Amino acid sequence: MAVLEKSGYAHYEISNFALPGRYSKHNSSYWLGEPYLGVGPAAHSYNGDTRQWNVANNARYLQALAESRLPFELETLTPANRYNEYVMTSLRTQWGCDLAHIQSLPEDYSKHFLDAIQPFLDSGDVVRNGEVFMLTRQGKLIADRVARECFV
To answer: What is the pTM of this model?
Structure first.
């Protein structure tokens, strides 16, 4: 982290660094909860409410297309799924987890989040800037634990 940041790279996601403004547009969609379309075998798509993924087997995929079918599975996300996913992905980024976004979900999990994140604020693993919560450098080392403790 120190070497890349000293070289001018932004640590914009737990496992990703880039020069400022040169972030991966494709992967950033995942982390920012934006809709995306996946095309081809094993590709995933997301529209905010559902996620679908195409079969991974190339032969089955091509055969289905030849029969004018799109072979995929579909998952409808519950409010708890949407909350957990947002917490997990947003905490991984330099943009952090916005309490306003949590409050905008179909169920308001903000009280749960605030209670669960407090020990990490106290330990210095998370910082709060207004309504946005971000992992500190030491917090990035335990990101999965922080997210897990905030899950419903």
So the answer is: 0.86
